[in-house]
C-alpha cells in the first residue's frame, strides 16, 4: 500500500520532469560514450576513426542541446566553466590513452585499447558536463519567464 505524498511533494511534477529529462540526457551520453569506445577499437584506421569521433561528439552535443531546448546560460562564468570542462575532458582522454599505452609496456594487449579508452572517457566527461551546463541554462530561462529571483 502506498502512502500519500506530503503536500510539498504532491505537485512536484516540474522537479520529476526535470529529473527525467536529466536522466535521459545522461543515458544519451553513456550511449555515445559506448559508441566511441567501440569505434576506438578500430585503431588501425586512425584518421577516419578520429573524423567519425569528432562528428559523433558534435552530434551528441547537438542532441543534448535539442533536449534542453537550446537554452544556454548567458553567465560568462558558466561559459568559461564549460570551456574549462572541454579542456578537462581532453586531459582525461589524454590520461586514459597514456595509461593504456604505459600498461601496454607491461601487458602486450594493453595499448590496443588506448584509443578506445581515450574516446570513451573524453566523450563521457564532455557529455556529462554539457548536460549539466544546458540544464542550468534551462532552469535559468525558466526563472526568467516566471519572474523569480535569478541566483545563477
Rough outline: elongated
User: Average pLDDT, to the nearest integer?
Assistant: 87
C-alpha end-to-end distance: 41 Å
Structural class: mainly alpha
Number of domains: 1
- Give the helix tally: 5
Listing every helix as H and every strand as E from the N terminus to the C terminus, the arrangement reads HHHHH
What profile does the largest beta sheet have? none
Query: Helical content, roughly?
Result: over 70%
Strand content: under 5%
Low-confidence stretches: 6-11
Over the alpha carbons, how many angstroms does the gyration radius reach?
19 Å
Characterization of the model:
The chain has helices at residues 7-10, 13-40, 46-67, 76-106, 114-146. Helix 4 (76-106) packs antiparallel against helix 5. Helix content is 78%, strand content 0%. The protein has one domain (20-143). The protein has five helices and no strands. The chain has 152 residues and is mostly helical.
Helices and strands in order:
Elements: H1 7-10, H2 13-40, H3 46-67, H4 76-106, H5 114-146
Helix pairs in contact: 2-3, 2-5, 3-5, 4-5
Keywords:
single chain; 152 residues; mainly alpha; 0% strand
Brief summary of the model shown:
The protein is mainly alpha-helical and 152 residues long.
